[in-house]
Structure formats: C-alpha cells, structure tokens
Amino acid sequence: MDVSKRMSLPMDIRLPPEFLQKLQLESENSPLCKPLSRTSRRASLSDIGFGKLETYVKLGKLGEGTYATVFKGRSKLTENLVALKEIRLEHEEGAPCTAIREVSLLKNLKHANIVTLHDIIHTDRCLTLVFEYLDSDLKQYLDNCGNLMSMNNVKIFMFQLMRGLSYCHKRKILHRDLKPQNLLINDKGELKLADFGLARAKSVPTKTYSNEVVTLWYRPPDVLLGSTEYSTPIDMWGVGCIMFEMATGRPMFPGATVKEELHLIFRLIGTPTEDTWPGISSNDEFRSYLFPQYRPQALINHVPRLDTEGIDLLSALLLYNTRSRMSSEASLRHPYFQTLGDNIHNLADTGSVFSLREVQLQKDPGHRTSVFQPLSK
Amino acid sequence: MVSVVDGGCGSEAGHKRRRTGGSSPPTDALTPARQRRSEARHRKQKLISRLSDSGFQEDLGDSPVSSPNQTPTVSPLRVQEPAAGQQLSGGWFLQYGDIGFRVQREREDHFHPCRSLARQPQLTSEARCKLVSWLIPVHRHFRLSFECCCLAVNIMDRFLVSTAVAADCFQLLGVTALLLATKQVEVGSPRISHLLSLCCDAFTKEQLCNLECLILLRLNFRLAAPTLAFFIDYYTNCMEAAQNEAGGGFARRNMDTKRPRRCSDLARKVCELSLADYAFNKYPASLTASCALRLASELLKTEQGLTIQSGEDQWDSFVDEPCVQTALSERSVDQEGHNQNLARECKDNLKMLVSLNQEKLDRMSNM
Questions:
Q1: Where, in this chain's numbering, is ATP bound (chain A) (predicted)?
Q2: Does domain B228-366 have CATH number 1.10.472?
Q3: Residue B27 has pLDDT above 50, yes or no
C-alpha cells in the first residue's frame, strides 16, 4: 500500500474573496452549526475581556509544572485571583500534546472537586490557561498542621478526592500524576484535582519542564515495572499512598529510584506472588531485580490512627492486581465514608460537600496558623 | 493497479498459511469435514479481508508501491492488538462501562459534525472520500489505533463545518487532523516531517503548524469526541458479558468465546468503510457502531450458515445471535432514543456499502 501520495486534487488556489465574504455573511445570519455560533458567542465575550491577556495582571511565579510555568494573577474583570499557566506553543512538533490534552480534557470536566479552567488565551507564541486560584495544596496543608491531621478531615479530603476522580474515570480520563502537590485546597477545605497535562506517554516523565526530578512516591508497582496499560487503577494506587500520608503525616514509599521505590513497596505490602499478582513471575523486569521474598505486614501497625474501615479501604487500594484494586466509584460507597451521611451521594456534580451541614472540618491537632477559622476579609 | 488489492496476490498465500497453521489444528489431523469447513472459513476471511482497506483505493490513482516502511499486511480476523496504552482495558468497561457509555452518549451530539460539506464551496463528497480513503492506510502505516483514525475524521469534519477550505489544502487538513488526533489519544505522534513527506512535500511545516493552531482555535480545543471505536468497544464488551452469562451453565461454554471479538473486528471494518462515505456523516457514532455490529453479526451468521458441518456451529449460532441482539438492543438503538427509522436506514445503507465494495473487490481480484 502506497501511503505516500500527493492527492490529485485540482491545483486550484485561493477562494475568491467575494465568495468568502458571502460565506461569512451566511454563517453569521444562520446560526445553524454549533461551532459557528460558538465562535460568535466567543466574540461577544471577548468584548468584555475574556480571551485577552491584558485582562489579567501577573503577580508572581507560583511554580513550574511538567510542561509549563504557572503564575499567580488577578483578573481585572472580576478582581478574583487566578492561576495563569503559560505554555510555549512553538515546538519542533507543533503544539505540545500535553497542552492539547489538558485543555481538551478539562473542557469536559465541570465538577466541584476539579479545578476550573476559566479562560484560554492564545497569543502568537503562547497559550495561557486561566484557572481558578486556590491558595494551598495538600502538601502545604500537611506542613501547616505539623503533619498531624484530624482523622475526620482525612476522611473529608479522601471523599472529595474520590469524588473528583470518579467523575474523571467515568469519562475515561486518567490523572496519572496524583500527588499531594496536585491536590489544591482552598480556605473552605475544598479539595480540587489539578494538573491534568500528562500525555499517554509510555512512562510518566522523570524530569519536569525545568529539569526537576519527578517524584516516584505515588506510582503503582505495575507502572514502575513498565506496564503501559492505560487504565483507571493506575490512579487508585496513588490515592492509597495519599491516604496513608494524610493519616500518618509521612509519605508511604519515599523511594528515590525505581528500584528503591519497589523495594519499599514490597517490604511493606509483601513481595508479589502469582497469587497476589497474576503473571508477575513472568515479568522480566521484576525477575531481574531479584528482590527478597518479603511477607506482607499488617497495615494497622503502620497507620494506628486509622479505623478498621479505613484500613480495609487502604488495603483495597494497595492491591497489586489492577483488576481487584478498588475503583473510585466503588470506594465512594465504602463503609469508611458511611459516617459522612447519605446526602453526600446526592450532591450535584458541581455541589461542594460543605454545602451539607453534617460535613464540617475540625481543627487539626497539629495545626499552627488558623487557616480554617472564619476569615473576616 | 496492483496496489489496490492490498494484501491481494502477493500475500494471499502467506495469509492462507498463517490461518491454517495458526488457529486450526495441523492439516494432517483434519477430518475431511473439518477440512471443508476450514476451507469455507478461509473463503469467508478472504472476503472480509478485502474490505479492510476501505475499498476506495482505486480512486487514489496508480502510483507505484514505494512506501518506505512496508505496511504490514493486516490479517482480517486477527485479534486486534491495540498498541500499548491506547485503549482502555476491559477492566474499565467492567467498572465504568454503563455509566461511561451514558456519558459519551450525552456528549456525542455536541461533537457530531453534521453535514460538514454543506457550506464548502470547493470540497465535494468525492474529494472527502478520496482523502479519508487515503488517511485510513496512513493511520495503519503509523500503526495508530482505530480510535485515532475515527477522531481524525471527526476533527476534520468539525473543522469543515466552521471553515471554508480550498481544495488544494484539503490533504493538509487531513494530515493535520490526524496529527492532532494522535496527540490526543496516542502514546506517540508521527513526526511532522514524515507526515509532510507522505504528501510529497507539497506543504511546509509552517503551514501545518499554522493550520494546527487554527483547528485548535476553531474547535475551541474540544478534541475529546466520542468515537465509533469507543462505541464498538463498549458494545463488544456488552456482548461478551451477555455471552458469558448465557453460556455460564453450559459445559461447552468456551466453544466460541471469540465470536464477539470476530464480530467486532468485522464491524470495525464496516465502520472504516463508512468513515469515507459522506452519506454516513449524518448518523451519530453510536448509531453507526451498533448498526455495524448488527450487520457484522448477521454476516458472520450467514457465512457460518453455509459451513455448518458439526453441532458446534449450530450451537454457537444458536447461542450467539440472541446474545448479540439483546446486548445491543438493551443498550443502544431501541432504548436510547435513536429514531427507529434512522437506525433502519443506517443499517440498510451499511449493508449496501458493504455489498458495493464487495463486488468491486471481487471484480478486482478476478482480473
């Protein structure tokens, strides 16, 4: 089959300008087709400043993502704080797929536990994504409370995380880079998933945009051993690690290399066998490491503050067999969350869990600065 | 015109060898009856294989075969091996299938490029057919998924709804849409220079990058469209689940567990044909997918009907047919609000499309 072929289409040229004009008029007068009506609506939005860079004031650098630089900013329109994510568009291979995926995926996600994309600004060389601004993330939150969280708050954060993730997973969207830094938290205690840029790359990148090392701590063993299966259980392992970290105040598997990461996992959960991980004995990568045969340890000894239901959920998230690993959707109905009440399951997608009176944050025992006292702004 | 019959003369022998050596028992162990059956099966497979490259390729002229990397001959009934990381695993369908399906069904209207050529002054349905019939082997050349191919056509069509395109830029639009689709759903993307060389370097990299930006802006970055490929995968998983349930009590339940897969592979070929035909542009993806599966199931049944030699075949045509029909009707056309007439029309059109291309291809192979 010859695929290399210039199509034998007429070598004909530009369209006559009158023709284009006529088309333009027609399309403006008959809003039959959705994309056209959308563009015209967009035009009116841009009149008041949407889609324009000058609408936002840059305030300072927040950090480097895996493929972009993030700034804090303020919208002149609403006076609200925003996060401005700047993505360079000029690359050897055109627009970066990470940017394309982050924007196209986030456009479909409207949920109380997922960061909102307010606006997209396209300039000559740059694409700027305008996100809602949240002042903290889970990592800072843990630092702030001296790594000693109220177990009630752990549960509320876990539920919000599961809720956001379940919404994504239903839409075939994986996060693939869950970690405390990517879970943003505002002053109400609302938790939102952020940083959806990762492509379906073979492995998650090991270096950031600015050459920082990417953490391995939340990666599932199947991915560490080179699995390229694109499926939702990938995210659930990291959720387990985050749950452990909130309940204990320290990262679960803080490995610096792939080998060390696997070693830490196996030492605690037990070295996988055909029983716990069907097919593992024929995994060449696994065999080449020659890990000792560790027996699984009782999780309760490592997370003494977590109740029985919590331990049960954690164990279900940290399963080697991806088919048995608990899904986010199923976990929402796990007995661990029963104390949050029934109404929490009837919330609209965009409804916050804190709209329910029975869901309230408690003061964290180790908490220093009073982030969650009523603010008198 | 040799290039037209992809995998025709040259690879036919190899194809036959693979079939008999592969899934069937060694030849000398065959009873005459089973031998007859395997021959009949082989005939059927040949017939299906000729559908695989969309059957429109004679339109593409007659330049000599000179692709840099030999395109692998695609065995029609091979189990489609998705390249790593492209497709959701069966686990997702298990955990999220029905909710996920509903979500995609709700979204599909917003991504449906209805009558994409209606306002195009220069582009005709023939040109679109040519272009898509070229994109199909190109996507295969890069070993991209069917999902990616469907998405590329969807992106192209939705751009056409928004923007008038000159005929001599149509091919550039095709490859750029393909590039965007790979960036959205594939593990890796072909290099721009490679894509341009497939267009005989008629366009520059700058032109392609500009068009890429323009597409993103016109589509407002909305690339995550529900595709034919998703719906076929979903319905196939339903059929497998239904079959497992129905076959649960039988001792010989694993007699033909591959049946839904074969049905879905054939349906995928049918859908591939439909991508290139503008007449199918008006049907939503979920409708075309379910009609293609119904048709594929009927075709396989007819093929099998000719070859009934043993109880096995009777058994599985007995058990499969209701499975397919109930699995499909429960989830798709009948209860999801598609217009019944539209569904009938779509299926009839698919049937016609298949038979049209079949004749054309039969004639070619006799030459």
A1: 85
A2: yes
A3: no
How far are the Cα atoms of A337, B24, B191, B295, B300 from residue B41, in angstroms, in the given order? 55, 11, 40, 18, 10
Q: Is A124 on the interface with B (CB under 8 A)?
A: no
Instruction: For chain B, say whether A172 makes contact (Cβ under 8 Å).
Output: yes
Contacts of B306 (CB under 8 A, 6+ apart): B40
Q: Is A124 a catalytic residue?
A: no
Which of the residues in chain A have pLDDT under 70?
1-49, 65-67, 197-214, 368-377
> Does A8 sit within 8 Å of B220, measured CB to CB?
no
The CATH T-level fold of domain B117-218 is Cyclin A; domain 1 (1.10.472)
- Distances in whole angstroms, Cα of residue B277 to Cα of each of A122, B109, B130, B212: 35, 20, 9, 24
Using the 8-state DSSP alphabet, how is residue B163 labeled?
S
Choose, from A177, A222, A235, A364, the residue flagged as catalytic: A177
Segment A188-211, tens digit of pLDDT:
999 999 987 665 544 455 555 555
Judge whether B117-218 and B228-366 match in fold: yes
Element (H, E) at B360: helix B340-366
Domain ranges of chain B: 117-218, 228-366
Which of B6, B198, B213 has the CB atom closest to A4's CB atom? B198
Q: How far is CA A115 from CA A299, B213, B248, in A?
A: 32, 25, 45
Encode pLDDT of B52-104 as tens digits: 332 222 222 333 333 333 333 333 333 333 433 345 566 777 788 888 899 89
In angstroms, the separation between the Cα of residue A332 and the nearest Cα of chain B is 13
Distance CA A137, CA A140 (A): 5
Tens of pLDDT, residues B311-339? 444 334 433 444 555 556 555 544 445 57
Q: What is the pLDDT of residue B317?
A: 40
Tokens of A37: 């009506």
Confirm or reject contact between A59 and chain B (CB < 8 A): no
Place of tokens 């323009």: B214
Quick check: B84 and A228 in contact, CB under 8 A?
yes
What is the Cα–Cα distance from A204 to A198, expressed in whole angstroms?
Answer: 7
ipTM exceeding the 0.95 mark: no
Q: Which domains are present in chain A?
A: 53-132 (3.30.200.20), 136-355 (1.10.510.10)
Long-range contacts of B192-196, Cβ-Cβ distance < 8 Å, separation of 24 or more: B192/A92, B192/A93, B192/A94
